[in-house]
Amino acid sequence: MSSLLTLSVGLGLAVSMLLTEFFGLAAGGMVVPGYVALYLDKPISVLITLATGMATFLVVHALSTVTIIYGRRRTVMMILFGFLLGIGIEHLPVRLLDALANLGNDPTGDVQVIGYIIPGLIGIWIDRQGLIETLSVLLTASVVVRLILIVLGMELGS
Fold this sequence. Notes:
With 158 residues, the protein is mainly α. The chain has helices at residues 2-23, 32-38, 43-63, 71-90, 94-103, 118-129, 131-151. The longest helix is centred in the N-terminal third of the chain and has 22 residues, at 2-23.
């Protein structure tokens, strides 16, 4: 899995750079499409991760109305709250996670937030360029990375 992850992240970097050059939009952090590409067969995990990124943005945005959060501090706050929200979701009651796994037809029950800093990176880019722009480029880049992995004949789980 680690060589697949390495290749996926590397392809994600290249695809993200190309999309940024052509369209001027970032894919939610340079490494995010590579990670998301590996989970496209688990749509509930992808949706939970995207929702956690959006929640991260909303929490930091709400905090910024009562305190000064900008620059490096804002970046750290996004990553920190993304991490904390992701950890919180991992500790949801088991029945809720089982219900989500059944909803996504995931027989392994492996419903989770993707990575520890991915939601924070998504939140940063939602803050910088907007929700629709970030999610559309992120999902496009992730699908392109997944297609390249398939064409290269890489095993993708299941």
